[in-house]
């Protein structure tokens, strides 16, 4: 899969109500508020949240690098029609120009790994399907190659 920028992704610290939006190229600068030292960074895009916990700020700067945002698992219209009514409740339709293309689960991820700022696949993360939040520790990201 080719890498795409995510214009409009929202980025903020978990303990703050001030955030920024990524620009057209997916870049952003998030000013630090006084008192924020060890916190979680939250990136949200298309209803999915990524919380990077235990962020360590050195000299007031942090470069999280480039990473691929995971997404919900896609299914075809035929696959959706085979689901039970309770399973269908966890799906949302995908449209393009008013035409139904398929569905995606809101409680399952497309991949069972993350690629955050490294070539290695990160499998040590939590996904909370209720809050649509992926939680990963900064130490796994900063030390990967």
Summary tags:
145 residues; three-stranded antiparallel sheet
Plain-language structure description:
The protein has helices spanning 77-81, 85-88, 138-142; strands at 10-13, 19-21, 38-45, 48-56, 67-68, 72-75, 91-96, 99-109, 115-116, 126-128, 133-137. With 145 residues, it is mostly beta strands. The strands form 3 sheets. It has a 6-stranded mixed sheet. The two termini are 20 Å apart.
Element pattern in H and E: EEEEEEHHEEEEEH
What oligomeric state do these chains adopt?
A: single chain
Strand tally is 11
Sheet with the most strands: spatial strand order: 2-1-3-4-11-10
Question: Helix fraction?
Answer: under 10%
The helix count comes to 3
Largest sheet, in brief, is: 6 strands, mixed
Percent of sequence in beta strands: 35-45%
Ends distance: 20 Å
Low-confidence stretches: none
Shape, per Cα inertia axes: elongated
Gyration radius, rounded: 17 Å
Query: Structural class, from helix and strand content?
Result: mainly beta
Q: How confident overall, as mean pLDDT?
A: 83
Helices and strands, with pairings:
Layout: E1 10-13, E2 19-21, E3 38-45, E4 48-56, E5 67-68, E6 72-75, H1 77-81, H2 85-88, E7 91-96, E8 99-109, E9 115-116, E10 126-128, E11 133-137, H3 138-142
Parallel strand pairs: 4-11
Antiparallel strand pairs: 1-2, 1-3, 3-4, 5-9, 6-8, 7-8, 10-11
Would you kindly provide a brief summary of this structure?
By secondary structure, this protein is mostly beta strands. 10% of the residues lie in helices and 39% in strands.
């Amino acid at each position: 899969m080719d890498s795409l920028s995510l214009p409009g992704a929202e980025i903020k610290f978990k303990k703050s109500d001030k955030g920024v939006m990524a620009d057209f190229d997916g870049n952003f600068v998030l000013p630090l508020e006084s008192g924020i030292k060890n916190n979680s960074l939250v990136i949200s895009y298309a209803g999915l949240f990524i919380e990077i916990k235990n962020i360590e700020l050195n000299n007031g700067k942090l470069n999280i690098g480039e990473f691929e945002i995971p997404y919900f698992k896609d299914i075809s219209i035929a696959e959706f029609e085979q689901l039970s009514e309770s399973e269908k409740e966890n799906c949302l339709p995908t449209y393009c120009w008013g035409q139904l293309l398929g569905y995606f689960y809101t409680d399952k991820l497309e991949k069972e790994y993350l690629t955050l700022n490294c070539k290695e696949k990160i499998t040590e993360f939590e996904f909370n399907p209720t809050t649509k939040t992926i939680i990963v520790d900064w130490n796994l990201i900063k030390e990967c190659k």
